[in-house]
Inverse folding.
């Protein structure tokens, strides 16, 4: 044991590197002349050395896996469910647009072939669609990837997707009145995918809105 | 605080497992060393390290931005380890009598084993003894000693981990060293 408590404390402060230069000199002087403190110092120094020599051990390789397996479920999914619960309308709308986008995309890609609204009396020749003279289509009419020969009448709208009207009866005059004789509704020409989606979305939204707000 | 760590914690608060995985990568070594020296064996160290990280994850909302992360983690590990030792029978205490009716302690047994002093010096002295003796320390001293020597934390950092005044940390460090000194002298006396 150190000869008194003050020197014992000093020894610890020394190990903590807390002594000033002068304090250290004084302590060392004392240690040289006091056997009790010398022994105490050596014993403490050995403890200090042994503790400092402690080597790191290897971490088990399955540690991280075990932790990850014990974590509560990823709550980002929980949050998703919460949003659905709190905002059913917004969630439904988001889900609807995702569905719409996917179905449109699929539609578009599977419809490089010519197609048209079903209607008796409409004649197809290759990729040409002929609405013969005297034929009257009561509703809307949609044509995709085709040339349209328009000789009959459409009471609703005519939508042309990647299609054009080749009208042999030739109406002179401006573009806007080109179809007036044959189409009572609007004529919409869509020849790009983005437009097609927009157009489709516009109609879907209308029907969606009438669905949610009857 | 480290920018990346801040980002990760933000992600973990949103419940992101992947971000927490990165935190585990960064701290598992440190926490494992701490637990191993506190508890003295791999089985318990693994158990407590895992529990530390699971607790950190489930309590991440209580972690405030102004706090430092690693002292927070060390504190969880220390508290869990101390609780664990309390629940578990203290099988490592060398000073306990081996049997109720005997006065001989485990320490006496180690000392009286049939070995030459040289052999004892080599096997015990090098690395085993210090860990065994460490385990005989009261947990409040052991925590400070392990954080100081094994984890190389400053006294100020240890004070943060244990939520104690720096003065108290110093006292524990000194008493811990003294206790170790006495035990080592005891072990070597034969
Ligand atoms: Zn002295």
């Amino acid at each position: 044991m150190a000869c008194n408590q003050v020197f014992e404390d000093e020894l610890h402060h020394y190990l903590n590197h807390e002594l000033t230069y002068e304090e250290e000199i004084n302590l060392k002087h004392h240690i040289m002349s006091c056997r009790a403190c010398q022994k105490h110092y050596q014993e403490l120094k050995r403890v200090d050395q042994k503790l400092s020599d402690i080597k790191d051990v290897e971490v088990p390789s399955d540690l991280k896996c075990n932790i990850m397996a014990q974590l509560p479920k990823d709550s980002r999914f929980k949050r998703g469910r919460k949003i659905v619960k709190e905002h059913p309308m917004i969630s439904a709308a988001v889900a609807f647009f995702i569905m719409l986008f996917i179905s449109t995309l699929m539609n578009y890609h599977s419809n490089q072939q010519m197609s048209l609204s079903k209607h008796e009396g409409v004649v197809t020749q290759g990729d040409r669609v002929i609405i013969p003279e005297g034929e009257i289509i009561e509703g809307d009419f949609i044509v995709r990837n085709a040339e349209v020969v328009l000789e009959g009448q459409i009471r609703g709208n005519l939508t042309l997707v990647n299609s054009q009207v080749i009208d042999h009866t030739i109406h002179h005059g401006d573009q806007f009145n080109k179809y007036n004789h044959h189409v009572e509704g609007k004529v919409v020409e869509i020849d790009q995918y983005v437009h097609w989606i927009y157009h489709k979305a516009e109609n879907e939204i209308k029907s969606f809105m009438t669905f949610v707000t009857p | 605080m480290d920018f990346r760590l801040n980002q990760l914690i933000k992600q973990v608060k949103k419940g992101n497992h992947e971000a927490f995985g990165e935190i585990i990568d960064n701290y598992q070594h440190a926490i494992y060393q701490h637990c191993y020296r506190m508890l003295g064996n791999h089985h318990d160290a693994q158990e407590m390290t895992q529990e530390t990280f699971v607790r950190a994850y489930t309590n991440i909302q209580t972690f405030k931005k102004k706090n430092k992360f690693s002292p927070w983690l060390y504190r969880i590990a220390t508290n869990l380890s101390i609780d664990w030792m309390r629940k578990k029978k203290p099988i490592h205490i060398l000073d306990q009598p081996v049997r109720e009716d005997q006065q001989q302690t485990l320490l006496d047994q180690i000392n009286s084993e049939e070995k030459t002093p040289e052999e004892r010096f080599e096997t015990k002295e090098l690395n085993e003894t210090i860990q065994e003796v460490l385990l005989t320390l009261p947990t409040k001293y052991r925590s400070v000693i392990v954080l100081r020597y094994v984890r190389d934390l400053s006294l100020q950092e240890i004070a943060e981990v244990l939520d104690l005044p720096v003065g108290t940390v110093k006292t524990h460090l000194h008493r811990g060293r003294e206790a170790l000194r006495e035990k080592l002298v005891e072990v070597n006396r034969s």
